[in-house]
Every structure is written in structure tokens, then in C-alpha cells.
């Protein structure tokens, strides 16, 4: 699905609103999700972390949720998230803050935007259907919109800190292409046994021999925490392998009988709702 990001204008969208997210099927084909440094502690135990190289050459910290075939293994066929922690990238959808114009006085201005491709935008929101207006009759932001702006503003701050750290790792030549070797016994689709293209990991040998001055700078940029977390998390690729086996088993069984209950994902990771922080509009 190609995003259609448009700003929420207070005048043209005065009577408009949105329908709350009811599932995460929109992320079903996202095998890597951008994350911030503040999320590492909640994610490192359950999935691999990596660095995705963008078209402009910049690296971005991501959580790896699938293999080369592009399937997000943490989202089941009903759109339920199978992990304990829901990344901010998914919590915020379909809202985002986009840079508006050039920086002034070293400050970047942002505007609140909405992904119209989500199908959740409503020009005539119906409160009886659970749909929510962006603004009230006086033109003031509804509470849910205020929450979204606050949440996204916090993400922008954390993303800036994260990007500074990742840039520091890249500048120190500590990133190398990641091609993990996995035990794929029981997996039937070979193309899915490699991680998505363009992912990098920490070069552990280079990290061990780094100069003291560079090490101090990495510490100041909070980059060492990301480096060690990424190295620790790589073994969690086995979780992806196990999830892939389960998805394939469910698909095979569905060819013969009614779809199986996927509660085994919850048993594997715990109750996904127990640790999810989210706005009322995402319930």
C-alpha cells in the first residue's frame, strides 16, 4: 500500500475526522519497522534489531519483523500484533509529523499529517460508528488530536536522539552488511530464510579495536547502548524462524480445515495487550 500523506488543515478539515485503527493489517508487509532508542529495552528480548540503509545512504535503526519475502511475521491474518510491545511506528498510525519548510533559528517546524491511504479518513465522521472529529465546533483540537500531537512530538525528539547515535556508529565505520546463518529446518519457502535486503549490523571486531577518542564520542552520543543491544538481539532471529514455521503450519492446516486459533503467538510472547500503551482511539 502506497502512503498518501496529507496535512490536516484546520480550515478544510474542520468537519472531518477519522475511524480508529482496529487492526495492524496495514503493517503486514513491513518486515522492518523504524524504532527509537527508548524502545530498545522493550524489544531486544523478542526480536532482532538492525540498521536499514536508506536510498540517500543514511542508516536507520529498525526492528526486524520478517524475512526477505516481506511478510511481517508478528502480524497474524486477523491483524493482531503478536509481540509483547507495540512499536511507536505502529501506535502512531495513521498520524505523523512531517517537516514544514526550512528550519528557522535552528528549529524545525512540523505539521500534523494523516495517511489517507489507510482508508480511515472520514469527511463526515459518525460518532455513532465510533468515528472521531479532529476539531470541535469552535475549531479547537479534540482531545484525541492533542494526544496524537503530544505523542508524535515525543517521537520526533527521541528519533533525533536515535539518529544522532546511529550516525555516530556509521561515521565510526562500525556497520557491516548482515547476512545471518540460520537453522531453517522445517521451513518450506527458501527465499524467506534470509533477512530483508539492505540491513546492516554492528561489526563486533571493529568495535573491539576502536580508538579511545572515538569510543568517548560514541558514549556521548548514546551510540554504545544501541551497538551492544543490536549485537545482543541478533540471536533473536530464531524467533522469526519459529514464527515463520507457525505461520506456514497454520496456512497448511487452513487448506484442509477452518483457520486455526493463533493464540499460540500470545503463549509464545505473553499477552500482547498487557504491555501496550496506546491512545483511546486505537482501542
Strand-helix topology:
Blueprint: E1 5-7, E2 17-18, E3 32-34, H1 40-43, E4 49-53, E5 59-64, H2 88-92, E6 95-99, E7 110-115, E8 121-122, E9 132-133, H3 143-171, E10 175-177, E11 199-202, H4 204-208, H5 212-220, H6 223-233, H7 237-254, H8 263-269
Antiparallel strand pairs: 1-7, 2-8, 2-9, 3-5, 4-5, 4-11, 6-7, 10-11
Helix pairs in contact: 3-6
Explain what you see.
- InterPro entries: SapC.
- This is SapC family protein.
- The chain has one domain.
- It contains eight helices and eleven strands.
- It has helices spanning 40-43, 88-92, 143-171, 204-208, 212-220, 223-233, 237-254, 263-269; strands at 5-7, 17-18, 32-34, 49-53, 59-64, 95-99, 110-115, 121-122, 132-133, 175-177, 199-202.
- Strand 4 (49-53) and strand 5 form a beta hairpin.
- Helix 3 packs across helix 6.
